Structure formats: C-alpha cells, structure tokens
C-alpha cells in the first residue's frame, strides 16, 4: 500500500526498544498500584467506623480476603503478561503467526483479506492458551491460600475455553473482514471514517436506548402516583425537572440497584431501578426471602434523584459526550499516524514492505498507543469522579445531605464489597469516589455550610 511511504526514516531496532520500554513501564506501574491496594487491605483489619453499623465482621473479613486474592492475582496476571508480551515482541511472534496463516491458505489464495481471517483465528486460540499460567496459579495456589476455592472441574474450563474460541469468531470474523475491507477501500484517512461512524452510532444510541436497550433490562413505566411520587416531585420541583420524565424500570434481576440520568431536551430522563426501592415497592409476601428489607426508603430515593438532578443541572451528559468524542478523535488521529509507520511493522519482525492491516491494528492499539490511552484513561476517570462530587454537592445544596448519606450506606449494605481503597489505586481504576470518600465529602460540605 503506497500510503506507508510518508513517514521519516526511523531505526526499527530503536522503535522496538521503545515499545519494550513502554510495555514494561505500563505493567510495572499497574503492579505497583495493585501492591499498594494489597498493603491497604492487609492494614485494614478493622471495619471503618462509618460502616460498623451495617457490616457484620464475618462479611467484612470475607470481602477483605476476596480483595487480597484479587490483588495478588492481578499482580501475577500483569507479571506473567509482561514476560510473555516482551517475548512476543522481541522474538517476532506476530510475523510468525502471519506466516503460519499465509502457509495455511498458500494453495488457496494469497489475498490479505482471507489470510487476516485465519490469522485472527490462530491468535484467538493462542490468547486462550496464554491465559493458562494465570488460571493455574489462581486455582492451584491462590485459592488454596485464601480459601476461596470454586468447585468447577477441570474439563469445564477446557469446554469454556473451546466455547469462547468458537463464539468469539462469530464477532471477530466479520469484524476482521470489515476492517480490512474498509481500510483497503478508503485508504489513508480511514481512521476519520471510523471516528465518524462511531460518533453517529453513539448519537443514535441516545435516541434508541429507551426502545432497544432498556427492554432487555426490564419494563420501563412512568413513576406512579403515591408517597414516593410526592417525595420525588418535591425535589424535581426545586429544579424545574418535569415529573413526566421520571421513570421506573421493573427489572428482571435483583443484582443491580441504581438510578441514572441521561439524554437531553425532550429525550432527557431520570430512570430509577425498582431494586432501589424498599422491597422493590412491593409487599413482602411478593418477594423472595433474600429480597425482603433491601432498597431505600422514599426520602432516600429522593436524595438519589437529587444527585441525578445534579448531573442534569451541571450539564454532565453534554460534557461527558463531548469529552468522549474528543478522546476518540485524538485516539483515531494518533492511531492513523502510527498505523502508517512502516518501521513499526519492521520493529516487531516483519520484512520491509510487508504491513498487514489487521496486525497494524493490534500492534498500535496494544503497544504503540499505550502511553496516550493510559493517561487519557486517568484523566477521564478523574473527570467522572469530579462529576460525582459535583452531583453530591448539588444534592447537599438542595438539603438532602443526611438522606443521601444514609442512602449511600444502605446501598452499600445491600451490595457489600470491600470499602477501603488506596487513594492512588482508586484514582487509576475507579469511575466513582469510594463510599468512604463520598461520606467524608458530605461531612466536609456540612462543616463548610455551618461556617458560612
């Protein structure tokens, strides 16, 4: 393809060392973060004072053991992945698999389109086998150490691996064909085409979400009149949000309880999961025994709605949409620049002039773009947490500080997880502030309000 000739000359060997360094720094940093979280878990033997009334000691201990297990597995996973990935780059793994795919179809066709299909199949099989060291370490060592054994026979893991390979090809095969076809058809600026298609699809999703996605979760109805309606109406009237845009989802599952705001103009809406309501808004005899007593009282639900109204008033939906589109545009521009660098292919072992399209996608997304994607992810997570604090501040401004605080604690009590996190680890991994951070923030707002 002629459009690979525009890059300045770069020594492929130097580029290889850059890729190896980027990969090493990224994985070691993730391992450092996991180690910090593990040390926090080890030191958090006592239940935080704010949550002692809602967490039984045995539940807290179980969550702590699970978090320790998860962090140690996370560190080993990144350590093993680092060693294997370095070997893949250094010893020319991708050219080897591409050569194998080419030889497989050698007597049939030499078309890159079909070779890419076989390449992706071989790569999927390899990635499945690549997970074995981590799986074995988890099942044979970590689960015994932490007492978290899962009773699943070995043959089930083999069946799951084979099934995942087969099912993944249903998605990957047409996706691979589409990528190669589009790049070959459009040429140099294909990455802008991908961005435009993604931007249009996400915009359409805003319109189609209530009609296509939500029915998969449950049945959506307007909030019916009653005591809850009056409490929610009171907070909506404070902000001018129409009650006709407040909905309840009668869910098919009890695993998720929340409320969310999305959309704009005539499409804006606040959606409340029925699992957020006390006893799902039903009589106790209509529930399973484990469902009785779960959920929030009406004033607590109103406080959660006040938080969601904070997202609306602060324009978080527009801001998040704009940021995501800008991030993806920058990603695609950088991707396009790196994708067209012939030395990048030579750095991982390909002969000069051989630049397979699908391999370019893998190398750029997995290795070359790592510095930008890592920093962009950190910035976006920081921004999402900032949005949550702003929405909490708005709920406090409306006078719902105590109900929101009690709602956060009750939601946590219904869906318990380990509550103590290292600050640095949380900054790099969490979309929301932790439960302890949000409670402390409400307390700080109370102190500020008392002095003002």
UniProtKB/TrEMBL annotation:
It is found in: Endoplasmic reticulum membrane. Its EC number is 3.4.24.84. Zn(2+) binds at residues 307, 311, 388. InterPro entries: CAXX_Prtase_1, Peptidase_M48, Peptidase_M48_N. Pfam families: Peptidase_M48, Peptidase_M48_N. The active site is at residues 308, 392. The keyword Lipid metabolism does not apply. It is a multi-pass membrane protein. GO terms for molecular function: metal ion binding; metalloendopeptidase activity. Proteolytically removes the C-terminal three residues of farnesylated proteins. PANTHER family: CAAX PRENYL PROTEASE 1 (PTHR10120). This is CAAX prenyl protease. It comes from Drosophila albomicans. The gene is LOC117572079.
């Amino acid at each position: 393809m002629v459009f690979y000739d525009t890059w300045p000359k770069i020594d492929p060997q130097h580029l290889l060392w850059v890729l190896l360094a980027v990969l090493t720094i990224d994985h070691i940093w993730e391992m450092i973060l996991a180690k910090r979280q593990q040390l926090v878990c080890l030191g958090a033997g006592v239940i935080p004072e704010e949550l002692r009334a809602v967490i039984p000691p045995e539940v807290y201990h179980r969550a702590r053991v699970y978090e320790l297990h998860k962090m140690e597995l996370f560190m080993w996973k990144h350590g093993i992945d680092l060693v294997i990935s370095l070997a893949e780059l250094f010893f020319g793994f991708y050219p080897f698999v591409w050569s194998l795919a080419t030889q497989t179809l050698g007597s049939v066709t030499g078309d890159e389109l079909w070779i890419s299909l076989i390449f992706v199949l071989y790569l999927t099989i390899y990635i499945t086998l690549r997970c074995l060291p981590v799986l074995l370490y988890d099942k044979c060592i970590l689960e015994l150490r932490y007492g978290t054994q899962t009773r699943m026979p070995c043959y089930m893991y083999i069946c799951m691996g084979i099934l995942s390979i087969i099912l993944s090809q249903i998605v990957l095969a047409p996706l691979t064909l589409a990528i190669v076809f589009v790049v070959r058809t459009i040429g140099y600026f294909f990455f802008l085409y991908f961005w435009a298609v993604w931007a249009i699809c996400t915009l359409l999703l805003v319109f189609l979400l209530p009609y296509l996605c939500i029915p998969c979760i449950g049945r959506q109805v307007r909030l019916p009149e009653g005591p809850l309606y009056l409490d929610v109406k009171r907070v909506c009237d404070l902000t001018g949000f129409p009650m006709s845009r407040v909905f309840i989802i009668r869910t098919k599952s009890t695993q998720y309880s929340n409320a969310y705001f999305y959309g704009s103009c005539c499409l804006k809406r606040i959606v409340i999961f029925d699992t957020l309501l006390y006893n799902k808004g039903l009589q106790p005899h209509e529930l399973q025994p484990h469902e009785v007593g779960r959920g929030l009282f009406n004033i607590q639900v109103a406080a959660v709605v006040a938080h969601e109204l904070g997202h609306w008033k602060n324009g978080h939906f527009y801001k998040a949409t704009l940021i995501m589109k800008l991030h993806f545009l920058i990603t695609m521009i950088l991707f396009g620049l790196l994708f067209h660098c012939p030395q990048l292919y030579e750095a991982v072992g390909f002969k000069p002039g051989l630049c397979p399209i699908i391999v370019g996608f893998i190398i750029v997304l997995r290795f070359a773009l790592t510095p930008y994607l890592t920093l962009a992810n950190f910035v976006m997570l920081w921004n999402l947490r900032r949005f949550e604090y702003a929405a909490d501040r708005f709920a406090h401004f409306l006078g719902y500080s105590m109900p929101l605080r009690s709602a956060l604690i009750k939601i946590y009590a219904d869906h318990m997880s380990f509550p103590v996190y290292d600050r640095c680890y949380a900054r790099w991994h969490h979309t929301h502030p932790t439960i302890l951070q949000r409670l402390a923030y409400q307390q700080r707002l109370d102190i500020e309000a008392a002095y003002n």
